Amino acid sequence: IISLAAEELDVESYVIGGFVRDHLLQRGDPKDIDVVAVGSGIELAKKVSELLSHKPKVQVFKNYGTAMLRAFDMEIEFVGARKESYSEDSRNPVVENGTLQDDQNRRDFTINALALSLNKNNFGELLDPFNGLEDLKSQIIRTPLDPDVTYSDDPLRMLRAIRFAAQLGFRIEKESLKAIRENKDRIKIISKERIVDELNKIMLSEKPSVGFALLHKTKLLKLILPELTALEGIDEIEGQRHKDNFWHTLEVVDNISENTDDLWLRWAALLHDIGKAPTKKFHKKIGWTFHGHEFVGAKMVYKLFKRLRLPLNEKMKFVQKMVLMSSRPIAIVDDNTTDSAVRRLVFDAGDNIEDLMTLCEADITTKNPKRFDRYHN
Ligand code: ATP
Q1: Ligand 1: which residue has its CA nearest to atom 16?
Q2: What is the reported pTM?
Q3: DSSP character at residue 187
Q4: Separation of CA 157 and ligand 1 centre (Å)
Q5: Is the CB of 104 under 6 A from ligand 1?
Q6: Does ligand 1 lie within 6 Å of residue 173's CB atom?
Q7: Is pLDDT of 374 > 90?
Q8: Angle (CA) 134 166 117, round 5°
């Protein structure tokens, strides 16, 4: 139908980006399709709607020159092929009309620049100017153009590279990794909401430690979640050492992720030890202690959520509770060591987060009411 509509309007059209990538990888049911028209994407969307029997509503985003409609249980997004050029201080480029090749040049990764023709003369042909197919096979994240320019132009791509590496289990090409490290400070021009979107996608990947280890390796993590990187390292005094709480945290996150897809439980696992960096002390008699880290950690959760503009709602309170329970209170529930206790609790609750929240509330209010109230006030 898109092909027919494009022919009627006498414009070339292509399917591009994530749909083509995921189709070639045979990855699940597609939820959206991106279509490029060499001409007006908005006009093409309107024509497609006319040809469809249910005449879906076309949502037009005039400022972006894009349009979207829903059909076949998918969102179909239409855009006119464009050429982009960037300035130093913004990730919003100057946009002009362009060819398919211009449009492929502006894409972030070779595997996201693959296009399938919808034109009559070469319907179904794969247009792959940057060897994206080869990179799909060798499982590599690579930029179509100079990586230094790609990441500097739009620093969100640094997080996207890591997110795709985490989701697909691909590795990031060496030059790209180097360019990400060199451009890391430009992450400051990216809005918190977009950063959180990518963090959440990493968090929901099968093994979140893969993405977080890459964020750490490229030194982006220190800029985004310094509370976490502060946990790294092992100190030794008088022959006594403590565990590396950063790498231990990543293990806990993976472990919990094997048992639940709940985003907020995964956040709780990621933050369960953040109070340990500021509370770390060495006592001659007892060795290393992190006394009071649960309460300090729960307060830190609030600040962290505020800074990242995550909603300060029930989910945040839930994460705080989980952090609060990350040692003594939870030991009462499970009578076991801290982290295995968290795992047990999560495992017992399965995906039923309501039960888990009730359980947390009951435990804190009955076993430790004073301390809980003090922290809440
Ligand atoms: P998913 O839907 O799993 O997030 P996707 O590849 O469809 O994957 P989108 O964010 O929907 O991701 O983007 C669609 C396409 O738009 C991408 O495949 C890519 O070609 C292009 N794209 C998106 N964001 C950028 C960006 N920041 N820089 C360059 N190209 C981008």
Answers
A1: 17
A2: 0.86
A3: G
A4: 9
A5: no
A6: no
A7: no
A8: 40
